[in-house]
Design goal:
Elements lengths: L1 E8 L7 H10 L7 E6 L5 E7 L13 E2 L5 E9 L5 H6 L10 H12 L9 E9 L4 E6 L8 E5 L2 E5 L2 H8 L6 H10 L12 E3 L4 E6 L5 E5 L3 H6 L10 H12 L6 E4 L4 H13 L6 E6 L7 H10 L3 E6 L5 H11 L9 H11 L5 E3 L4 H5 L3 H9 L8 H8 L6 H6 L4 H9 L5 H8 L16 H11 L1 H15 L4 E3 L5 H7 L15 H4 L7 H4 L14 H11 L4 H4 L5 H9 L5 H18 L4
Length: about 600
């Protein structure tokens, strides 16, 4: 795990090698254990690497790395979980290894299989690779998008980086991409391939960007598509295989030459990770880490009890509402793109503590998407039948009497993608985004993979958008800010392909989510099974007074409004409005304003 950056030119030497080196320096937090630089003899290619040493702690694992014959050079961010198994096959093909590094496994795999090696890798990775003989450079991103890869074409030079800010500084980019801002206002995150900065893009998951070093021609190739994996093989998976499959994932994800911990929220997903890890390693010392909010209703007591049951060395921190403004400021500082997922704040604080004890931590991210944990899956499923029922409007009126059901009731008046977005908890609807921006926005296509069954379509939608660009982006930045490697065993691509073909009956029913995890034998602790989903998210409604106060301090003098990105009358309307969804709108605008000020160094 590390940070990588670089620049690739095909017709002349790079004009500013110092600017490439600065990108590496700006990511030193991602790799505190070492650094490496590479410049080609002709000066056309330069790589920067910041190392967080996890496997092969010797210099044999240092990067950038070239083969012994200097034919290939690589710069890798990530970890290949099957690096133990692949060398056996490669040795039979006459490969000779000089290290125990997973990076060298990719190089030798490319020697024999070419770009097909990327389909043989089981792990999280983004990388740059140069084939000097073929005069080709390749940027690659893993199947689920666990590791980021940003790139830009800057005056005939393709520059890339693991983070947005170093690349923005290299490119001198300062223009906000209005369509990306519209996406953020709607969903609270920016989704690829565009970024918030005009001219900077992200490589999509499961894709390679090929660059011809003779002509400069670029083409993008998809080497893995979850949609194709699901739609081309509609057969249902056997739920009884879960234990064996997940156990294999855990076994591979704990491979490291340093201690490994678990981020324990108190919910089903992280507890399933801990349960499986403990069952597989009954005598291993396990460190667990949890966060609370000074509230007796948070998950800290549940996580603490779970840690006792599984015999871990447990650690805790508290994030309090007195820290709200400084926490939002820290969020803006670390994230190169605006992100209004409130769980990023406690995750950053937790990562800071965890990094003092271990270099690697397992989390439960992905469990909601794979096993039907989000309430909007049930709600969307239910609402798909309601319009066909008599007196649907009267039914909606009854829903409004149920606590927290106002969003489901209001969704009855929406169709297609707008309905799903609303149930998903979107901050602003399309017409509200258009009003805030002062311009029309492109309508979303509500036919997203419409050929799939509803439960597959909704989970696939999340995995290809929300999970990649919100959840995984959040995890990568929050943990790497403190030199901590986060691993997500539930997003192992083989487990994902299998889980996406599970029958709906083992996912959720009208009153029960994640039935597969709840029905495991032996079961998880009862306090976990009876707990409502909370995760690491801030208790925004409990902190509503403080959020309103913060919004009223900074939004009336909005720098984003002065710059013309938002309309002042619409921001004031949100400030003066009321209703159950005002809080999330204020939170979204406050996070963006704080982020925008931090990027312009405005106090």
């Amino acid at each position: 795990m590390c940070g990588i950056a670089g620049a690739i030119s095909w017709n002349r030497p790079l004009p500013d090698l110092a600017a490439v080196r600065r990108m590496g320096v700006e990511m030193s937090h991602r790799g505190p254990d070492g650094s490496g630089s590479f410049v080609s003899k002709d000066g056309r290619i330069a790589f920067e690497h910041r190392r967080l040493a996890i496997i092969d702690l010797t210099e044999g694992g240092a990067q950038p790395m070239s083969t012994a014959d200097s034919r290939w050079t690589i710069c890798l961010n990530g970890y290949i979980y099957n690096y133990v198994e692949l060398p056996n096959e490669l040795k039979s093909l006459a490969s000779v290894f000089r290290s125990d590094s997973d990076t060298e496994v990719i190089l030798e795999g490319y020697r024999h299989f070419g770009t097909d090696v990327f389909s043989r890798l089981r792990g999280m990775f983004s990388l740059a690779l140069v084939d000097w003989q073929a005069q080709k450079a390749i940027l690659v991103r893993d199947r689920l998008g666990i590791k980021p890869m940003f790139f830009a074409d800057v005056g005939g030079v393709v520059a890339f980086s693991s983070e947005v800010d170093p690349l923005r500084n290299f490119a001198g980019t300062s223009e906000i991409e209005s369509s990306a801002l519209g996406h953020f206002l709607r969903y609270r995150y920016v989704s690829g391939p565009a970024t918030i900065w005009r001219g900077i893009n992200r490589l999509l998951p499961g894709h390679c960007l090929n660059i011809d070093l003779r002509t400069g021609k670029k083409d993008t190739v998809c080497f893995w598509s979850l949609y194709e994996r699901v739609s081309n093989n509609p057969g249902l998976s056997d739920p009884d295989e879960f234990e064996d499959r997940f156990s294999t994932c855990i076994e591979q994800h704990i491979r490291a030459d340093v201690p490994v911990g678990v981020l324990l929220s108190g919910g089903l997903d992280s507890t399933a990770v801990l349960r499986t890890l403990r069952r597989r390693n009954p005598d291993q010392e396990i460190l667990t880490f949890s966060v609370g909010f000074g509230d007796p209703n948070d998950e800290l007591s549940i996580a603490r009890a779970t840690a006792r049951i599984y015999g871990t060395q447990h650690h805790e921190i508290q994030v309090l509402k007195d820290d709200l403004e400084s926490s939002v400021t820290a969020l803006a500082h670390h994230y190169g793109e605006p992100l209004a997922d409130s769980s990023a704040i406690p995750l950053m604080r937790l990562a800071e503590k965890v990094s003092k004890h271990v270099k690697v931590a397992l989390g439960g991210d992905g469990g909601d998407e794979l096993f039907g944990g989000y309430k909007w899956y049930q709600a969307a499923d239910m609402l798909s039948y309601i319009p066909a029922l008599p007196a649907a409007s009267a039914f909606g009126g009854l829903l409004t009497r149920w606590p927290g059901a106002w969003r489901v009731a209001n969704a009855l008046d929406l169709d297609g993608q707008c309905r799903f977005d609303y149930l998903h908890g979107a901050s602003f609807m399309p017409e509200e985004v258009a009003a805030l921006l002062g311009r029309d926005i492109h309508a979303e296509n509500d036919g997203f993979h419409g050929d799939l069954p509803e439960h597959e379509r909704l989970r696939l939608y999340d995995l290809e958008t929300f999970t990649v660009d919100s959840v995984l982006y959040k995890v990568d930045v929050a943990t790497m800010a403190y030199g901590l490697e986060a691993r997500v065993p539930m997003l192992d691509h083989e487990l994902v392909e299998w889980a996406m073909k599970l029958p709906r009956s083992v996912l959720y029913s009208a009153g029960k989510t994640k039935k597969l995890l709840r029905d495991l034998n032996p079961p998880m602790p009862p306090q976990v099974l009876s707990q409502q989903k909370k995760g690491f998210s801030l208790p925004l409604r409990d902190w509503a007074v403080d959020i309103h106060a913060l919004a009223n301090r900074i939004l009336p003098s909005s720098v984003a409004v002065e710059a013309g990105h938002l309309r002042g009358d619409e921001v004031r309307r949100v400030l003066n409005s009321s209703g159950p969804d005002q809080l999330i709108k204020l939170w979204t605008l406050t996070v963006f304003e704080t982020w925008y000020r931090s990027r312009l160094s405005v106090q």
